[in-house]
Design brief:
The chain is elongated and about 50 Å long. 6% of the residues lie in helices and 34% in strands. The chain has one helix and six strands; from the N terminus they run E-E-E-H-E-E-E. It has one domain (4-79). It is mostly beta strands and 87 residues long.
């Protein structure tokens, strides 16, 4: 039986606690991601690319295969499952 907390929920109900990872549905795929607040323009170095409007606004980010993150537009979310019990 599926636990109550493991059902997909609309993204508008997701917690926006910075850095807390959840499962996200993005483009029909399940991805691991988290909410990030908007970037601070003061953090730009002299050789950095300017922040995009999306980066300044913040949003949902998914982890990529290259240990980086990218801005995403998820439709649903679910808490990460608990790890298996050690026996």
């Amino acid at each position: 039986m599926m636990a109550k907390h493991s059902r997909w929920r609309l993204i508008k109900t997701a917690p926006k606690d910075v850095g807390v990872q959840v499962l996200l549905v993005v483009g029909g795929r399940v991805r691991n991601g988290c909410w990030q607040n908007g970037a601070d323009p003061a953090d730009l170095g002299p050789d950095d690319e300017p922040w995009t409007p999306d980066e300044l606004a913040g949003g949902w980010y998914v982890l990529t295969d290259y240990s980086e993150s990218m801005l995403a537009k998820p439709t649903h979310w679910m808490p990460l499952p608990d790890p298996p019990n050690k026996r």
